[in-house]
Amino acid sequence: MTAKVAVVAGAGGPLGHATTAALLEGGLTVVAVDRNEQEMRDLPSSVRRELADPSDPAAAKSVIDAIVSQAGPPDVLVNTIGVFSLGDSLAATPEAFRLSFDVNLGTALWLSQAVAPHMQQRGSGAIVHVTSRPGIEPTGGMAVYSASKAALVHLTRILDVEFRPRGIRVNAVAPQLLDTPRNRTIFPAEVMKQAVPPAAIAAVIAFLVSDAAAPVSGAILPAYGPPAASAPGST
To answer: Which of 4, 61, 145, 193 is catalytic?
Structure first.
């Protein structure tokens, strides 16, 4: 990898932890961003930590500006931030709608907006967002979540169209179900048999930001796990 500075948003979560480890292994300088300081405490000591909630546009710009001044312009942005909720369309509430779209869609837009000028100035950059299978294939019982992740899929493609001429690649990974402690409390054991370890998704992300993936932009990469997987999931 030729990139030097990578920002991992949502670094406090299981996928954020795994992605941080994968990028460190690839030789990048990683800056972790999360709104929960405690969840970042066990990250490697070489990782710079920034406390922020990037679903707030002002906070997203402020934290990226701080990273630029302290660590240098980011070459890579990985956004693993997301919120999951169950409930069909009839059970959807305005509060759940706003939260899902603010977190699952807004965070991706505000962070992309914040890093783009710095990447454009350097003439290169790689951005990866994390969507999900319900954002690609309609899934019952999680209406607001699925719609917000579908919007993220479309936003990723729009960003590709707008950013690629500036030298910035934008892709997304779409897991079906991650093997995390929280998901084990939500889904039954037979469903969790199809879950994918966060490290496996992190390896896909590390590839997408690497020079080996230089021709790849605008891709929504399915990462559904074993071929027999059929259960809906969350990220």
So the answer is: 145
